[in-house]
Amino acid sequence: MNARSLLLIAALALIPSPALAWGKTGHRVVAAIADTQLSGLARAHIEQILGPGESLDEAANWPDEMRSDPAAFWQKTATPWHYVTLNGIIYDHAPPEGDALEALARFSKTLQNPNASLADKQLALRFIVHLIGDLHQPLHVGKCCDKGGNEVKVTFFGKPTNLHAVWDSQLVDDEQLSFTELAAKLERHISSQDVVKWWDINPRDWISESAEIRDSVYPKPGTSAVKGAKGKDKKVPDLSYSYVYRFTPVMERRLSQSGVRLAAYLNAIFAEPQPLPAR
């Protein structure tokens, strides 16, 4: 390997990776909760599509994991499918490159298309599991000009980060529970009344809920000092115990709602038996 290649690798290592909604833990929690609410028919179809070696919680993170694939599909085409952008709380329309809602509708049609290949159905199912989680993360329903909070610099217990990363993973992982522990904890607090209230398969409702929450999660300007672009100290909010205390219940409710609605959505898609393409 020549010196130029080494320099390129070093430079790429300094580029922050794109934020991933809920992180690995959150997406697995959503899928694990959904798994407890699936109908027998939906479960059978899912097992036929994914095969015996892949659980729903394994499928949940696949669209994020594939971002490491250098193919143009993953580096460009699929990137806008993880979020929507709106300035108010009412979804208007998708941009030309598409967004999470447009992708969710398209992949749902694929699952219900008897002529779609097994590979296409696998891609569609993995994305649907992932995107329903994305749309319940308040900062994946972003507003103009800060990239869903990625450009809102903060510190979390004194460590430099950004607001989007706090909601993706740091808030979820603060209690240091595994995804199975967190899913079990949340399931114990989901009442039958919650299931009835949350059983909603309209993504526009989820988007409006996330947008309403989104505007409340932005912190006030703070006094924590971090190095700016030119090496000068910049004052940013420091998020610590008070922020965790206030927003952990919100985060847990969104994970719980997402799990229930993922089950509702898949149950609706697989409400009738469907033929499966040969492997």
Would you give an account of this structure?
The chain has 279 residues and is mainly alpha-helical. It contains 13 helices and seven strands. It has helices at residues 3-13, 23-35, 40-50, 56-59, 62-65, 72-77, 100-111, 118-136, 163-170, 179-188, 192-198, 203-214, 241-269, and strands spanning 84-85, 141-142, 153-156, 159-162, 224-227, 233-236, 238-239. It has a three-stranded mixed beta sheet with strand order 4-3-7. Strands 1-2 form a two-stranded parallel ribbon. A two-stranded antiparallel ribbon has the order 5-6. Strand 5 (224-227) and strand 6 form a beta hairpin. The longest helix has 29 residues, at 241-269. The radius of gyration is 20 Å and the shape is globular. The N and C termini lie far apart (41 Å). Residues 1-18 have low confidence and may be disordered.
What is the fold's blueprint, element by element?
Elements: H1 3-13, H2 23-35, H3 40-50, H4 56-59, H5 62-65, H6 72-77, E1 84-85, H7 100-111, H8 118-136, E2 141-142, E3 153-156, E4 159-162, H9 163-170, H10 179-188, H11 192-198, H12 203-214, E5 224-227, E6 233-236, E7 238-239, H13 241-269
Parallel strand pairs: 1-2, 3-7
Antiparallel strand pairs: 3-4, 5-6
Helix pairs in contact: 2-8, 2-10, 2-13, 7-8, 8-13
